[in-house]
Hints:
Elements: H1 22-39, H2 41-44, H3 76-112, H4 114-128, H5 132-143, H6 147-174, H7 177-184, H8 189-201, H9 203-225, H10 237-244, H11 253-280
Helix pairs in contact: 1-3, 1-11, 3-4, 3-6, 3-9, 4-6, 5-6, 6-8, 6-9, 7-8, 9-10, 9-11, 10-11
Amino acid sequence: MSVAIPNVPARTSRRQGILASRKGRVGFAILVALIAIAVFAPLIAPHDPNAIDASRILAGPDLAHPFGSDALGRDVLSRVIYAYRVSLGVAVGSTLLAFLFGVPLGMYAGYHGGWVDTLIMRPIDMVLALPALLLAVALIAIIGPGSDVALLAIAVIYLPILARVVRSSTLVVASQTYVEAARARGTPSRRIITRHVLPNAIGPAIVQATILMGFALQIEAALSFLGLGAQPPTSSLGVMLADGRDFLTQAPWIEIFPGVAIAITVLAFNFFGDGLRARLDPRGVTR
């Protein structure tokens, strides 16, 4: 006697790609637009960002200058557009640099364990214990101010974080049956790491790196605001905030528009990170 098996509707997978998440789509679209603005700044900016116009000192927004002018008569909109080049460059570059060094260290420590884990992770834990901004200020005080130095300082801050994330996910993956089977077959450790561990453990680190880019933008702005990052007349979001702090009541647009630019960028990175989390979470669960 045949038994009829009822048709059970397939459960819709939540891992349909980044663009399947509404927040991921929004964040991705904003980031693409901001990157395009940074790349094509000379073509998009309506004015020279460093051109001084004595007739427009602290002039309010109008059709020719939608974001108004600063204390030197420079166009705020043009300076914001050019500022994305520096701020996004430092944020993305520092995170990628930390990713390139932190991921191999964390994966190697998590896979081998024992004295290898201790040798790699104890110095990293010491760096992680230091306050992030204080560590950045200390490095810049030793080397000197500048956007490149700020990039390096932020990378040093983020390397322990990414190494810790990768180590944790590597410990989980290394205990799986397919990894143990590969070891039993005598597969070399390097091949196991590249073929089995890396593809399955890298997801959380990518998500973490994307979110850290937003915080890196904030750190860069803070360092530039303190005079430790990009140096005038270079247009940076933090430098613009520092330039307008003495004119907050007289010309608030000098502070408002760079601040809004920072907020939008950080929000876009967070939205994009949420989209990546929904895609790369091994269990398809967004937390």
